[in-house]
Amino acid sequence: MSALPPCPQCQSAYTYEDRGLLVCPECGHEWTVGEPGAETDARVVRDANGNVLNDGDTVTVIKDLKVKGSSLVVKVGTKVKNIRLVEGDHDIDCRIDGIGPMSLKSEFVRKA
């Protein structure tokens, strides 16, 4: 029996090889044998200046942003504390004082 690595997502020991890919029958994850970063699929989120953003950072809005479905506007220079990074087009979840919970795109903020 060969010693194949466990699944990087669910840690299942029942992985098998199929046409050059390693496959997990429990969660369906597929990866290559020598794939760098197979253990972590962490994506890097950068602000408008190219700085790497992390969960819990404080950012500043660099452009007036209209709030969809409302007459409210997030003004330039608004500080947003304790951001949370998420998957998707709007990759920052946060709470803005006076407006409430929002999703922002990282291209419209800079690290404070």
From TrEMBL:
Domain Protein YjdM C-terminal: 45-112
Source lineage: Bacteria, Pseudomonadati, Pseudomonadota, Gammaproteobacteria, Lysobacterales
Highest rank taxon of the organism: Bacteria
Protein name: Alkylphosphonate utilization protein
Similarity comment: family membership: Belongs to the YjdM family.
Native source organism of the sequence: Dyella thiooxydans
InterPro entries: YjdM (IPR004624), YjdM_C (IPR013988), YjdM_N (IPR013987)
Protein YjdM N-terminal domain ranges (all copies): 4-32
